[in-house]
Amino acid sequence: MEELITDFGYIAIFIGTFLEGELVLALGGVAAAHGYLSFTVVLSVAIVGGFLGDQTCFWLGRRYGPRVLARYPGLAAKAPRVQNLLRRWDAMAVILLRFCYGLRIAGPLIIGTCGISPWRLALFNFIGVLIWAPLVAGAGYLAWYAIEQWIGRLKHVQIALLMAIVLAVIVWWIVAELRRRSSDG
User: Fold this and answer.
1) How much is the mean pLDDT over the chain?
2) What is residue 153's predicted lDDT score, i.e. its pLDDT?
3) pTM score above 0.70
4) Which H, E and C letters describe the chain, residue by residue?
5) Are 112 and 62 in contact (CB under 8 A)?
C-alpha cells in the first residue's frame, strides 16, 4: 500500500484536483503527514491540477456552454445560481465557487457562458486555487495528527486497514453519487 501511494499518489492528486478534488487532496495531505508524499509537492500538484481543471471547464463552457446546458438539465438548473453569484460579486464569486460543493465543475463551465474575460477568470481562479489547496491539504494533514493523537500510534497494518476503509468509503460514495446523478438526469 505504501509503495502504491508513493508511486501513484501525485498522479491521483493531479487527476482528482483536475476533476473535483477535495477528498483526494485531503487524502494527499494525510499521505504527506505520514511521510509517503511531500506536502510541498502535494500542494504544487493540486494547484496545477485545480487550476487547469477549472480553466478547461471554463473553455468548454465558452465554446459549448449552451449545448451542454441544453443536454444536462441538472447542470442548467445550477446556471442561474452561478450567474447570480457572478452578477453580485464577480471576482469574489470566481474565487468562492471553488469552495461550493457541487459547483466545482459546473461553476467554471457556466462562467464560460457568461462572457467573463478569460484573463480575468484565470487571475481569480489562480487566487482561488492558492487559497483552496493549502486549506484542504492542510485539513487532511492535520486530521492525520488528530487521528494519531486520538487512537495512539498506529502500526503499519493498522495504517493499511485505515487506508483500505477510507478507499472503500470513497468508492461507495462515488458509486452512490453516480447512481444519484444517473437517476436525476
Assistant:
1) 85
2) 56
3) yes
4) CHHHHHHHHHHHHHHHHHHCCHHHHHHHHHHHHCCCCCHHHHHHHHHHHHHHHHHHHHHHHHHHHHHHHHHCHHHHHHHHHHHHHHHHHCHHHHHHHCCCCCCCCHHHHHHHCCCCCHHHHHHHHHHHHHHHHHHHHHHHHHHHHHHHHHHCCCCHHHHHHHHHHHHHHHHHHHHHHHHHHHHHC
5) yes
Residue 41 has pLDDT above 90, yes or no: yes
Number of separate helices (H) and strands (E) present in the chain: 8, 0
Give the tens place of pLDDT for each residue, 152-179.
Answer: 655 566 667 777 888 888 889 888 888 8
Over residues 75-84, mean pLDDT: 83
Q: What are phi and psi of 106, to 5 degrees?
A: -65, -40
C-alpha cell at 153: 500510534
Q: Which cell numbers hold the place of 65?
A: 456552454
> In this prediction, what percent of the chain has a pLDDT beyond 90?
34
Rounded to the nearest 10 degrees, what angle do helices 22-33 and 39-71 cross at? 170
